[in-house]
């Protein structure tokens, strides 16, 4: 009995302490509240159905279409302000778990870094594995606040090739100078030999080099004309649902010497630099007192990976083979997401008034990606249409999206188009 009493007293005392220290999900470490720890998480569950690319196989068996279930993202973040100048951030999780993946997947480290504030707002420097990248706003998107089911993934230009799911190992500096928000970093690219898309074959079409890499330089600068956004972490908000009035114009760059190589007509190996430039605009604002709002994002990017570079991406692809070498896309839902050339992307969404459907509301949206890659004579056009059922803003929401992609062939046949539908449920706290 005495042990039961002691346990009850311990639980009661601990609960009392936590109730006094916890606020907004933070565990405060001092009375003033400027030192704290915070734990948060996000989970996104997918049900998807659609038509596969020609020649698709699953473990050698041909498949024309299918339906799959998956966990698109599961993330846990632990971060905090440990002293007046020292901040740390860590994130762990799992991406793209479906029925063809390895069982019992283990969490891997997304981020682990620490930073020191030389000036409270103007300059912080940090080191570690982080998402302080260049090029554009959604090179480092906040996974829990994406407007649709995904951000414009082409902005994560070396995702899992020479980085770890967009995170880069190195040093960075960030801060605000008036209304100018900036981030710069020097990253050491991860070995291409460890990438899931690694190949040792060098061809006339450019690919990443297997040579020891030079440092990669990243920068992104945005002028925030209206309300200021937080730069506590590198991850940028997809939409505020009208809770802020934001208008930003940004510009970014990614550069790495001799990152790529290819064969010239004499079969000599030629090294070329990786150079990527981006411009973007973001507007997110309430438009009426009833809570309705609009969100708009557009970007143009010049991506130079070397001659005729192309890389396919099939998000959480439920297939693992292709039997038609004439199909450039590969199997499943993959299409040429990345390439040498120019890309235009835009997304726009409209949130209806608060409490439109009981305590919930709706936010329809559309996205469009147009790429003119030098390897193709025709443009790569990808679009999606969707609607969010916001039960509790980003904290609990359902998203239904239709996506349409092109299929390219080596023999210059007309481009086919294939579609798929995704139902996502997100919980985020």
Give a written overview of the molecule.
By secondary structure, the protein is mainly β. The chain has a single domain, classed as Beta Barrel (Porin). The protein contains 1 helix and 24 strands. The chain has one helix at residues 2-21, and strands at 22-23, 26-28, 36-51, 56-58, 61-62, 65-81, 86-98, 108-119, 123-130, 168-177, 180-187, 207-208, 216-224, 246-263, 269-286, 293-304, 310-313, 321-322, 335-339, 341-351, 361-373, 380-392, 396-407, 416-428. It has a 16-stranded antiparallel β-barrel. It has a 3-stranded antiparallel β-sheet with strand order 5-4-18, with no helix packed on it. The chain has a two-stranded antiparallel ribbon with strand order 17-19. The longest helix is centred in the N-terminal third of the chain and has 20 residues, at 2-21. The two termini are 38 Å apart.
Total helices: the number is 1
Report the top-level CATH class: Mainly Beta
Query: What's the CATH architecture name?
Result: Beta Barrel
What would the average pLDDT be, to the nearest integer?
94
Instruction: Please state the CA-atom Rg, rounded to the nearest Å.
Output: 23 Å
- N→C terminal distance: 38 Å
Proportion of strand residues: over 45%
CATH topology: Porin
Oligomer: single chain
Note the run of SSEs as H and E. Answer: HEEEEEEEEEEEEEEEEEEEEEEEE
Q: What is the CATH H-level superfamily?
A: Porin
């Amino acid at each position: 009995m005495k042990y039961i009493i002691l346990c009850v007293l311990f639980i009661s005392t601990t609960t009392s302490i936590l109730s006094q220290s916890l606020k907004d999900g933070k565990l405060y470490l001092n009375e003033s509240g400027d030192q704290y720890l915070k734990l948060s998480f996000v989970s996104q569950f997918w049900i998807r159905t659609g038509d596969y690319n020609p020649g698709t196989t699953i473990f050698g068996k041909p498949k024309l279409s299918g339906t799959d279930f998956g966990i698109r993202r599961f993330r846990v973040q632990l971060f905090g302000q440990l002293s007046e100048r020292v901040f740390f951030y860590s994130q762990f999780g799992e991406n793209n778990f479906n029925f063809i993946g390895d069982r019992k997947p283990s969490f891997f480290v997304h981020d682990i870094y620490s930073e020191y504030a030389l000036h409270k707002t103007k300059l912080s420097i940090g080191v570690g594995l982080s998402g302080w990248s260049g090029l554009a706003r959604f090179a480092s998107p906040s996974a829990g606040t994406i407007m649709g089911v995904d951000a414009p993934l082409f902005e994560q230009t070396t995702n899992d090739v020479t980085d770890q799911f967009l995170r880069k190992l190195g040093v960075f500096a960030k801060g605000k100078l008036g209304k100018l928000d900036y981030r710069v970093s020097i990253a050491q690219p991860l070995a291409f030999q460890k990438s899931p898309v690694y190949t040792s074959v060098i061809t006339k079409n450019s690919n990443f080099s297997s040579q020891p890499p030079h440092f990669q330089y990243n920068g992104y600068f945005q002028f925030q004309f209206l309300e200021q956004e937080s730069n506590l972490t590198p991850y940028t908000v997809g939409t505020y649902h009208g809770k802020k009035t934001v208008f930003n114009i940004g510009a970014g760059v990614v550069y790495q010497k001799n990152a790529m190589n290819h064969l010239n007509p004499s079969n000599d190996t030629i090294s070329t630099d990786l150079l990527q430039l981006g411009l973007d605009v973001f507007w997110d604002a309430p438009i009426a007192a009833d809570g309705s709002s609009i969100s708009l994002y557009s970007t143009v990017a010049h991506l130079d990976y070397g001659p005729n570079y192309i890389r396919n991406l099939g998000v959480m692809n439920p297939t693992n083979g292709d039997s038609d070498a004439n199909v450039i896309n590969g199997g499943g839902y993959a299409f040429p997401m990345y390439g040498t050339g120019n890309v235009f992307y835009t997304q726009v969404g409209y949130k209806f008034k608060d409490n439109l459907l009981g305590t919930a509301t709706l936010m329809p949206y559309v996205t469009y990606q147009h790429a003119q890659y030098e390897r193709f004579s025709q443009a790569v056009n990808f679009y999606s249409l969707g609607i969010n059922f916001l039960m509790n803003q980003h904290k609990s929401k359902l998203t239904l999206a239709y996506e349409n992609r092109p299929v390219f062939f080596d023999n210059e046949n007309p481009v086919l188009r294939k579609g798929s539908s995704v139902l996502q449920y997100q919980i985020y706290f």
